[in-house]
Amino acid sequence: TKGTTPSNIGETFSDNKEVRFIKGEDLIDARVTNIGKTFISHHVNEKLKRSQLRKDDLLVVIAGTLGKSAIVESEILPANTNQAISLIRFKDKIHSLFTHFWFQSSYFQKQVSESAVISAQPNLSMEDLGNFYLPLPSIEDVEAINKILKEKSILIKNLLEKTKHKLVLLKEYRE
Fold first, then answer.
1. 30, 70 Cβ separation under 8 angstroms
2. Mean of pLDDT over the chain
3. Mean pLDDT of 53-67
4. Please, what's the largest Cα pairwise distance for the chain?
5. DSSP string of 68-96?
6. Which pLDDT score is estimated for 120?
7. What single DSSP character describes residue 65?
């Protein structure tokens, strides 16, 4: 499914910080940022029941910066999402991580770029997203792949942080 904007149902955003309202720009570095900018009330969240987020839901941007994805973590809940994000909820949560990694692959990104409708803002339809190829290995293989990819992701993240730190030090030395 996908979300909607509160104004489409005659409601408004809120300053009360009750429920996070996730937009495409909130998905950074393959995760939902922990710093919320937009909120809705619990009342509006109930009206937007279809797009209420749960832990391990997979989010993918379908308008704007297409194909960015993230898995919902419990720290951001309660949360809801707008129409620029597709919400995928698997019966078996192990597939969320696997699919999230697949969405970061060059093969998936190629599917996205070939299917996107470019106008003022690039868009993917829910039908396009549903028709994309997704490999479905056995549960054992998915668990093994997820484990390896998690380890490699952590390694890459640590290397990036060390490199950024070295760049800061080099800049300081130069000054």
1. yes
2. 87
3. 89
4. 56
5. -EEEPPGGG-SEEE-TTEEEE--SSTHHH
6. 65
7. S
Q: Which stretches of the chain are DSSP H helices?
A: 42-47, 94-103, 106-115, 126-131, 139-174
Write out 23-38 in H/E/C secondary structure.
Answer: CHHHEECCEECCCCCC
**Cis bond before residue 122 (omega within 30° of 0):** no
**How sure is the predictor about 170, in pLDDT bands with cuts at 50, 70 and 90?**
very high
Q: Are strands 58-61 and 69-71 parallel, antiparallel or unpaired?
A: antiparallel
CA distance 71 to 77: 12
End-to-end CA distance of the chain: 52
Its pTM stands at 0.77
**Is the confidence at residue 90, as pLDDT, over 70?**
yes
Phi–psi pair at 147, nearest 5 degrees: -60, -45
| Angstrom distance (rounded) from CA 150 to CA 166 | 24
| Contact in structure between 73 and 55 (CB atoms under 8 Å) | yes
- Average pLDDT on 92-105 reads 87
119 — pLDDT class (breaks 50, 70, 90)? low
Helix, strand or coil, per DSSP, at residue 51:
helix
Kindly give the pairing relationship between strand 31-32 and strand 39-40. unpaired
